[in-house]
Amino acid sequence: MKTMLKVYNTLSKKKEIFRPKKDARVSLFVCGPTVYDYPHIGHARTYIVFDMIAKYLKEKGYKVFYLQNITNIDDKIIKRAKEKKISPKQLAERFEKEYYKDMKSLGIDSISKYARATDYIPEIINQVKQLIKKGFAYQIKDGIYYDISKFKDYGKLSRRTFLQAEDAVSRIDESKEKRNKGDFCLWKLSKPGEPKWKSPWGWGRPGWHIEDTAITQKHFGFQYDIHGGARDLIFPHHEAEIAQMEAISGKKPMARYWLHTGFLTVEGKKMSKSLGNFITIREFLKDNSPQILRMLILKNHYRSPINYSKKDIKQAKKELRRIAELIGKLKDINSPRKKVAGAPKNLIQKTKRDFEKKMDNDFNTPEALAVIFEFVNKINNLISKNKLDKEDAKKILNLFEWFDKILGIGLTKAHHRIKLSENIKLKVLVETREQLRKEKKWQEADKIRKQIKKLGYTVEDTEKGPRLKKIT
Ligand SMILES: [Zn+2]
């Protein structure tokens, strides 16, 4: 049953049957945030996707250890802290907290451990030592560098030649003394006023790529199952990780499966501060529920690009409402066991099987959601023919709960939110109107009556008090 899952591996450029190293356990590492600003909806995409992947793997019976690093020391952090006139440590601590807050509001709860780069300095120093000892690294004036010409497999993940690699990396780690233009920094010797740690080569701080391999070696060993991240990290970041870890261990592959999420654009354009189309998770959640973001993201395959638009938000809202309405109807079904069964049992089983088939095909959530919508149609049809009893409804609701466990959209919760908020609103309006009537403020009372009408109800004043009637 477990071997049915196929995943697309960036390393082989093929879909492969998923077989973890240890039978029932999955070690999963995903590149976490650099904590210098609020995360945006592009980040949300990657983290929602891997949350779904971890949840599905668990549902398939795997014990998943999901590890994520927190880059809390880095050039961007130092620069931003300087602008804000606070220490890099203060800045990083603040945005690390903000990151957790955003993940929580998005319902992302599958991470087993967050690992801060600065908590792994001894492990980082140890890896750099190993790389020097094995001849893969060398020291120049401003730090220790990795010599990419020494690692034969360099470029195997991103399919770049040595020269192409050189061109791209040179912009990142600029030092004229480097042996090859593409060599990247492992340990940066610190300039005055910068955060620093003691090392055999002097006071300094880790380069960007080394923290990930130090963290994964500590928790997973030399080899593990899945490495994930956004696709813009394939080069140079993930290529560098392979070069570091496989050079140290002499074992390959470092990660058996490399999974990468596609880009997210806003109204057809890349998100950037200068274009003013940079949407943080927080801003999105001011006007929308987290369910909408999840729906929007999972309606696309994780490897495809997503274009975020207002039209798509509207559509996602509509679809969520359709499900919420069905959930509401199911919860209202009160009829006892029918003698002639509505036969939803086969339908439920088939739907579950179809859903799994789609998910087993490289986590194809758009097709899995299509299975759910087809099911919604069929159930609505059965309800309209009065073919479902209370027990059927319960079984169907259970299936929706199972979808929720994997997709995390909160399909069954959406109903509560809509019903509750609307009911409370109505209740308050009716009471306010009554009070105004008692005070003989007829005009104001009439205004409230119009508001109630907007919510789809008329008020009838009976002897026993006001009574709501749904407008049909
Ligand atoms: Zn990383």
Multimeric state of these chains?
single chain
Shape: elongated
Strand tally is 16
Average of per-residue pLDDT values: 91
Report, as a whole number of angstroms, the end-to-end distance: 49 Å
Low-confidence stretches: none
Q: Helix- and strand-based class?
A: alpha/beta
Strand content: 15-25%
Number of helices: 15
- Gyration radius, to the nearest Å? 28 Å
Instruction: Describe the largest sheet.
Output: 5 strands, parallel
Protein topology:
Blueprint lengths: L5 E4 L4 E4 L7 E6 L10 H19 L3 E8 L4 H10 L3 H18 L7 E4 L4 H13 L3 E4 L2 E4 L15 H8 L14 E6 L14 E3 L3 H11 L3 E7 L3 H16 L5 E7 L2 E3 L2 E2 L10 H7 L2 H9 L7 E3 L1 H23 L11 H17 L4 H20 L5 H18 L3 H28 L3 H13 L2 E6 L2 E6 L2
Parallel strand pairs: 3-4, 3-10, 4-5, 10-11, 12-14
Antiparallel strand pairs: 1-2, 6-7, 7-8, 8-9, 12-13, 15-16
The structure holds zinc ion.
Structural summary, described in words:
The protein is an alpha/beta fold. It contains 15 helices and 16 strands. The chain has a five-stranded parallel beta sheet with strand order 5-4-3-10-11, with helices on both faces. Strands 6-7-8-9 form a four-stranded antiparallel beta sheet, covered by helices on one side. Strands 13-12-14 form a three-stranded mixed beta sheet. Helix 4 crosses helix 6 (210-220) and helix 6 packs across helix 7 (234-249). The longest helix is centred in the last third of the chain and has 28 residues, at 411-438. It is elongated and about 90 Å long. The chain binds zinc ion. Zinc ion binds at residues 31, 212, 237.
